[in-house]
Write a structure and sequence with these properties.
This protein is an alpha/beta fold. It is built from eleven helices and 20 strands. Helix 1 (20-34) packs across helix 3 and helix 10 (347-353) crosses helix 11.
Length: 376
């Protein structure tokens, strides 16, 4: 048992297995593909898998730089990676400079206001690591707008210089779609920006960016989803190793007649005499309610005794119902294991079945799972 494991699986309805060896293998594969240093994006509690175990494993493997969204996440990462460079993607909240200094963290600055505040904080004599500068090349979300041209950057040059920038970065909007012309426009825009900061490392590639043709790696890449086993090349075979497995158990079996309605509000109707299995899983465990199987549309699915079985009825807070009619009656019984993520049900398949994306499945995994960390 790892130091990060949670309580006995016998007390929980589900078991979440996290392969830290596969996580490290994916990071190494992406770094080799990039041919330069790869950081690790560990925001959203390392995409739901736990900042502390993920950062500990990656740092031990040689990862030197991490990106999180919030200052609180950076503080957690710093506790297990004392020597790493840790960037806070969501930038500098007003008056937070002291917390950055106290925990040796680097803000990703994306506005004139942030630049001025950070420059002023540094000028006060604070000892801080270099910050990153975020240039927006497409999303119109965070970052200085590259569409304002070189003149806008030149106008802020004194603030940029005073802020002590150690990294210049931007973020792709559509890198998972290699055919999207926005990718080439962003690469060109960022190339011009990076050239105006000679001697300062640059970063553009996210997970899918590692697989874009003609995309430069610069000095640092920032994989996230692909580290955790998500497919960075949708529509093509997944080049990453699976990291996450989720299993539950059968609580009860019942037979229903054709025409019976199942689940809250009777949204699924049995079209034949059916055998149903109720399992320990629900939206309180982070499994989306949109995975409900209804008369109008199919939903999620699970593997029982090697057979993929559909969800029927509404996903409720604690329970999901499966149609196991196609299994031999003797092949499934109370207490049997059920696979929700694993094998053919990879993150992206599960996301599609829940009418969302694998990212949301990962980052929504709840606190009630018994977590088992392997591969360490």
């Amino acid at each position: 048992m790892s130091a990060f494991d949670t309580p006995d699986a016998d007390t929980c309805g589900t078991i979440l297995t996290i392969d830290l060896g596969a996580l490290v293998s994916n990071w190494r594969a992406l770094q080799a593909r990039a041919g330069t240093e790869a950081a690790a994006v560990v925001k959203a509690n390392a995409y739901g898998l736990g900042i502390e175990p993920a950062v500990t494993a990656l740092a031990a493997a040689g990862c030197k730089s991490f990106f999180v969204a919030h200052l609180s996440e950076g503080i957690r990462a710093r506790a297990v990676a004392p020597d790493a460079t840790i960037y806070i993607l969501n930038g500098l909240l007003p008056g937070s400079g002291e917390r950055y200094a106290a925990h040796d963290l680097s803000p990703v600055l994306g506005s004139a206001e942030e630049l001025r505040e950070w420059a002023g904080f540094r000028a006060s004599g604070a000892s801080v690591r270099p910050a990153a500068l975020h240039l927006d090349t497409a999303i119109n979300r965070l970052g200085l707008s590259a569409s304002d041209g070189p003149g806008a950057i030149a106008a802020l040059r004194s603030e940029i210089d005073a802020a002590g920038i150690g990294l210049v970065m931007s973020h792709f909007a559509s890198s998972e779609d290699e055919a999207d012309p926005a990718n080439a426009r962003q690469m060109a825009a960022f190339s011009a920006i990076a050239a105006s900061f000679p001697g300062i490392p640059a970063s553009l590639k996210n997970s899918s960016g590692h697989f874009l043709s003609d995309c430069p790696s610069y000095q640092l890449t920032r994989p996230g989803y692909a580290l955790y086993g998500g497919n960075p090349t949708p529509g093509r075979p997944n080049p990453m190793r699976p990291v996450v497995g989720l299993t539950s158990r059968v609580l009860q079996l019942r037979d229903v007649r054709a025409g019976s309605q199942v689940g809250y509000n009777g949204r699924w109707t049995a079209r034949r005499d059916s055998r149903l299995a109720t399992i320990c899983l629900g939206y309180a465990d982070g499994y989306p309610r949109n995975a409900s199987g209804t008369d109008a549309s199919p939903g999620g699915s699970a593997i029982v005794d090697g057979v993929v079985c559909p969800f029927v009825g509404t996903v409720s807070m604690d329970l999901v119902i499966l149609d196991v009619t196609d299994l031999p009656a003797a092949s499934v019984k109370r207490g049997d294991p059920v696979t929700l993520i694993g094998g053919p049900l990879d993150l992206d398949v599960v996301g599609a079945g829940a009418k969302t994306i694998g990212y949301e499945i990962l980052t929504s995994l709840g606190r009630r799972h018994a977590r088992r960390y392997v591969g360490v």
